[in-house]
Amino acid sequence: MMRAIELAKMGEGLTRPNPPVGAVLVLEGHIVAEGWHRKAGEDHAERDCIGKLPPMPVNLSSATLYVTLEPCSTHGRTPPCTDIILEKGIGRVVVSVVDLNPAHAGRGLKILEEAGVEVVSGVCEAEGRELVAPFEKFITSGMPYVTLKLASTLDGKIADSEGNSKWITGAEARERVQAMRRRADAIMVGAGTVRADNPSLLPRPSEGREPFRVVIGTTIPADCKVLTDGAAGRTFVRYGALVGVLKELAEEHSVMHVLCEGGGKLAARLIEDGLVDEFVFFIAPKLMGADGLPNFAQTGGLIAGVKELKFHSVEQVGEDILIKAKMEK
Ligand code: AOF
Ligand code: ZN
């Protein structure tokens, strides 16, 4: 299943509005085929995997198909995966997580079981759930999953007194940010960040990803990168309630996963409005000092109103620390 999850990850950032899914077919203890979902409208992971079997007939009644998501059971853009599994006579199907898409949700597993296929679910469930978290948010609420990434010094400063923020964290942390961009459907920043840094916000290397870029605010220079480079056609500048902007991204552009990279004011608004699904903090072993410099929560300031988070993972990345956290529900 961990191999199937690895395969699924190759589709992250490419599949909207579909989830990234991976599949592995095992026969007599050996992996005989692998597959993953590349793009909505193209083969699902199961079909991609099974399609890679050699053309000669093989008895698959003792084979196990490992899939990161419950196989679909209805005709969407593509035919149901349950059909091909039954057609090929695969004896056992192991899934990580049930598909929360109301069109499937348990139905695929039931169809397989009723047809005599041995079904196991909940394998590597935490990893499988993490993989489809953006899809689940999108399909169940019509809103994108929002990851808020912030890089700060140990004393919580996200920029210096001249607004410079690019060099707070080290090279490895910046590489990780590129990987996060490849997994997102849209990268969002505040107008202040564009004015201060003139970022491209595109992943490097892009590996085929073409995320939207969303700038929240009114005034950005006409010659900034996001408005003038080759991907400028996928840049949106928006002002107003963030809920409305996020809804527009989901409804009109099938954006399932938004990565917000700050700055402090936009971060504070997202936090205040309860729109952040996951926090990713990069913390550098540096002290900036000085009062009044930008940090990421410019509102509140009383212990009574403190926002409680829960750390999900803590990891050293180069000289920096990466903390993933979620708001306590
Ligand atoms: C699977 N395997 O690899 C994926 C699944 O319009 P379609 O036919 O592409 O179906 C989209 C739905 O299928 C999507 O909303 C989700 O519930 C499921 N995605 N299912 O069995 C896959 N990507
Ligand atoms: Zn399917």
Automatic annotation (TrEMBL):
Substrate binds at residues 165, 167, 181, 201, 204, 261. Pathway: Cofactor biosynthesis; riboflavin biosynthesis; 5-amino-6-(D-ribitylamino)uracil from GTP: step 2/4; Cofactor biosynthesis; riboflavin biosynthesis; 5-amino-6-(D-ribitylamino)uracil from GTP: step 3/4. The active site is at residue 46. PROSITE patterns: CYT_DCMP_DEAMINASES_2 (PS51747). Its cofactor is Zn(2+). Binds 1 zinc ion. Residues 1-109 form the CMP/dCMP-type deaminase domain. GO terms for molecular function: 5-amino-6-(5-phosphoribosylamino)uracil reductase activity; diaminohydroxyphosphoribosylaminopyrimidine deaminase activity; metal ion binding. Its EC number is 3.5.4.26, 1.1.1.193. Keywords: Hydrolase, Metal-binding, Multifunctional enzyme, NADP, Oxidoreductase, Riboflavin biosynthesis, Zinc. It comes from the Bacteria. Zn(2+) binds at residues 44, 72, 81. The keyword Ligase does not apply. CDD domains: Riboflavin_deaminase-reductase. It catalyses: 5-amino-6-(5-phospho-D-ribitylamino)uracil + NADP(+) = 5-amino-6-(5-phospho-D-ribosylamino)uracil + NADPH + H(+); 2,5-diamino-6-hydroxy-4-(5-phosphoribosylamino)-pyrimidine + H2O + H(+) = 5-amino-6-(5-phospho-D-ribosylamino)uracil + NH4(+). It holds the Pfam family RibD_C. NADP(+) binds at residues 151, 193, 197, 218. One of its GO terms (biological process) is riboflavin biosynthetic process. In the C-terminal section; belongs to the HTP reductase family. In the N-terminal section; belongs to the cytidine and deoxycytidylate deaminase family. Converts 2,5-diamino-6-(ribosylamino)-4(3h)-pyrimidinone 5'-phosphate into 5-amino-6-(ribosylamino)-2,4(1h,3h)-pyrimidinedione 5'-phosphate. This is Riboflavin biosynthesis protein RibD. It comes from Pontiella desulfatans. The gene is ribD.
